[in-house]
């Protein structure tokens, strides 16, 4: 297996971005094959269990109260309704069931229902992942005791560009929550969004932040911005060349994430529905090995099960059936 490093410099990561495209893909594919089955992709399902009404002002998010996107706020879904959706996801082949709530942070009054949901989904034999906003240490411990497998909290972009996207919390708040999650024993899921108007230098900073954490995130979702009318970024980038990230640059970002975080699951997340089959194939070659299935991601459209099945058949890919390498190593080290 590839040596795991947490001492990457920004210069080293910039050098990777600057490699000739074919050389970068070769290196990324080589690292991927050393650590993961190259023809298997993890299938995940994402469900919004509480939509809209979030007080944060994230410029990309249609669920913010600051956005004029038409998304209506809902209450937390009933436990049984969530479990029914989880059962459907399992029947459709998903390995992990991810649940998102549009909160700045969960309230104590909601934690009992959240814990019940985690336990119920785990009892089905599915991996569990939640994203609920910022967490306090005691909340992370509650989720860990319930058996939560992963907690998602994206850093979104580089430390320098972050404040241009969000003003209601700072970058350190993101890192603090990741630290609470890591200390509780829950696996970390953290990535970001490409195509928010940032520069390559910002993409270098984004990867550098994750790749220099004491322990790499077990999952790294890489999103392509889905510009939504009524959001700050959606309106700002509308009808401009920046409205969609260059496909080759997106693949480069996936490849650099794979090289610098060899054991992590690198997930193609939001924005995949607008990617061509060729671009998705390049992402898989570059080391992406996880996707969200279904036709919806929280409030954004997704590719859908039928198109994914057709693409997998065309590329000779199958659904991942075994444990993720990073979790296997984590268990082995604990033993």
UniProtKB/TrEMBL annotation:
It comes from the Bacteria. [2Fe-2S] cluster binds at residues 98, 129, 189, 267. Keywords: 2Fe-2S, 4Fe-4S, Biotin biosynthesis, Iron, Iron-sulfur, Metal-binding, S-adenosyl-L-methionine, Transferase. It catalyses: (4R,5S)-dethiobiotin + (sulfur carrier)-SH + 2 reduced [2Fe-2S]-[ferredoxin] + 2 S-adenosyl-L-methionine = (sulfur carrier)-H + biotin + 2 5'-deoxyadenosine + 2 L-methionine + 2 oxidized [2Fe-2S]-[ferredoxin]. Its EC number is 2.8.1.6. Residues 39-264 form the Radical SAM core domain. [4Fe-4S] cluster binds at residues 54, 58, 61. Pathway: Cofactor biosynthesis; biotin biosynthesis; biotin from 7,8-diaminononanoate: step 2/2. InterPro entries: BATS_dom, Biotin_synth/BioAB, Biotin_synthase, Elp3/MiaA/NifB-like_rSAM, rSAM. It holds the Pfam family BATS. One of its GO terms (molecular function) is 4 iron, 4 sulfur cluster binding. The keyword Metal-binding applies. Binds 1 [4Fe-4S] cluster. The cluster is coordinated with 3 cysteines and an exchangeable S-adenosyl-L-methionine. Binds 1 [2Fe-2S] cluster. The cluster is coordinated with 3 cysteines and 1 arginine. Its cofactor is [4Fe-4S] cluster; [2Fe-2S] cluster. PROSITE patterns: RADICAL_SAM. GO terms for biological process: biotin biosynthetic process. It is an enzyme of class 2 (transferase). Homodimer. Belongs to the radical SAM superfamily. Biotin synthase family. Catalyzes the conversion of dethiobiotin (DTB) to biotin by the insertion of a sulfur atom into dethiobiotin via a radical-based mechanism. This is Biotin synthase. It comes from Erythrobacter crassostreae.
